Amino acid sequence: SSGINAEYGERALSEVQVLKSEIRHSNQPSGYLVDSIKKRDEQIGKLRKEIEGLREGCEELKAERKKLQIEKEDLVCDLEKALKNSDRLKDLRQRVEKKIHMTDRIQPRPVVFTKEKLVS
Fold first, then answer.
1. 3-state helix/strand/coil string of 25-82
2. Which mean pLDDT values do the consecutive 10-residue runs of the chain (120 residues) have?
C-alpha cells in the first residue's frame, strides 16, 4: 500500500509538473499579447503627442504666413506709392527743364565789355 501510494504520488507529482509547464506555456502567448498591446499603446501615445506637436507647428506657420501676407500687401502699396511719386517727380523735372530752356531763349545775351576804344 505504501508502494502504491508512493507510485501514485510520483505520478501525481509528474502530472502536476506537466500541467504547470503547460500553464506556463499557455501564459506566454497571453503575456506576449499583453506586452505587444502595451507597446502598441505606447506607440499610439507617442504618435498622438507628435501629431499634437505638428498641429501646433501648423498653427504657428499659418499665423506666420498671415503676418507675412499682410507685410507683403503693405510693401506692394508702398511700392505703388513710390512708383507714382517717381512718375510725378519725372513729370515735374521735365516741366522745370522745359521752363529753364524757355527762359534761356527769352533772356537777352549778356553784353561783353572790352577795353577797345570806340571810334567816332
1. HHHHHHHHHHHHHHHHHHHHHHHHHHHHHHHHHHHHHHHHHHHHHHHHHHHHHHHHHH
2. 72 85 69 85 96 96 97 96 90 86 68 68
